[in-house]
Design goal:
Blueprint: H1 2-59, E1 73-77, H2 84-94, E2 100-103, H3 105-110, H4 113-117, E3 121-124, E4 138-144, H5 147-159, H6 173-184, H7 187-192, H8 196-202, H9 205-211, H10 225-233, E5 238-241, H11 245-256, H12 281-290, H13 292-309, H14 315-321, H15 323-327
Parallel strand pairs: 1-3, 1-4, 2-3, 4-5
Helix pairs in contact: 5-6, 9-10, 10-13
């Protein structure tokens, strides 16, 4: 009898321990979700206040951009997980009087050229097909990122955001499929999925966005995608490099001739994501094979940046001198 009681108590003890672990895990998850929602609320409040102030200034007919930029339209193509969130808030702080059009991808689809022409500063997750709606006289710019780092960052960003990819509304319907998949699939399973609404994120997304559009309905003939992306990228007044974020911000400040240079800041960083170095080599190789076009596009942009702004010093040489700077690049 004593042995049976002891055995029963042992089972209860194991069950209780498991329950405590599950409770702690759920508590940590809820805390993370609370922090995420708080951050989204704060960003939404900042955006609301900024838009309200912008409307007031527009009604008063206040000048919105520095003289060196007028009458050009400032257009930032924000490719996800390329440090664009950090950059957009830096620019909004530097240009508080600008009349801004900041929208989601479906809203760029719906916007008329006449509506966009009224804005001095356009930013968001648009694609190159939308550029035709912007003013002909424009300063178009974007940032590119090393593709393996970018895809790793994107997956863990999606996995940590069960609601939506970002705060924009309405969300792109395609992103819902990828978000749900990131919650249930391992990174390797996510990469191996041939669902077009997942593959649009895992395979050559930067090249697709710059060639025309990364969504499955717009891909068409992909045979000359890299050539089209390179041709379109040549129309950009500035292409920054995420791994050279501080240098890119400094160069952009000079190109825009701002009264005060932009101060680099890193936002939207996922501290809990896996690093490329921690992944199995076969997983890294899958990412590499899925992004061969992005790798070529990135290398060309990196070489162009080094030649134009680093005065002959290559990214690898700078990284060897200051490795911590590049390891802390914002997501």
């Amino acid at each position: 009898m004593k042995s049976k009681i002891k055995s029963a108590l042992s089972v209860i003890g194991v069950g209780t321990a498991h329950d405590l672990v599950a409770i702690r895990d759920e508590r940590d998850r809820l805390r993370d979700e609370r922090d995420r929602l708080r951050d989204e609320r704060n960003r939404a409040n900042e955006e609301r206040n900024r838009l309200s102030a912008s409307l007031d200034k527009l009604r008063r007919g206040k000048v919105t951009l520095p003289p060196e930029l007028r009458p050009r339209q400032l257009c930032f193509l924000h490719i996800g997980k390329n440090a664009g969130t950090s950059l957009q808030y830096m620019l909004l702080d530097a240009l508080p009087d600008a009349e801004v059009f900041h929208a989601s991808l479906p809203q760029f689809d719906e916007a008329a050229a006449s509506d966009l022409a009224a804005s001095d500063f356009i930013l968001g997750h648009f694609t190159f097909q939308h550029v035709a709606k912007f003013r002909a006289n424009r300063f178009l710019f974007t940032f590119l990122r090393e593709p393996i780092e970018r895809v790793v960052s994107l997956y863990f960003f999606m996995r940590g955001r069960p609601g939506r990819v970002g705060p924009d509304s309405p969300p792109d319907p395609n992103s819902v499929v990828a978000l749900q998949a990131a919650q249930s699939l391992s990174f390797k399973q996510f990469l191996l999925s041939d669902d077009p609404k997942i593959r649009m994120y895992t395979s050559n997304q930067q090249t697709k966005i710059l060639a025309y559009d990364h969504r499955p309905d717009y891909l068409g003939d992909a045979s000359d995608m890299l050539s089209r992306a390179e041709t379109n990228l040549a129309q950009f007044a500035f292409v920054g490099i995420t791994e050279l974020f501080d240098e890119s911000v400094h160069a952009l400040s000079e190109k825009l001739a701002l009264n005060e240079p932009l101060t680099p800041r890193k936002l939207n960083i996922n501290e809990k994501r896996e690093t490329v170095e921690s992944l199995d080599e076969d997983v890294v190789d899958i990412v590499r094979q899925l992004n061969l076009l992005d790798a070529k596009l990135y290398q060309k942009a990196l070489s162009d940046f080094e030649r134009a702004y680093l005065r002959g010093v290559t990214f690898n040489e700078k990284a060897q001198k200051s490795p911590a700077t590049f390891a802390a690049t914002g997501d």
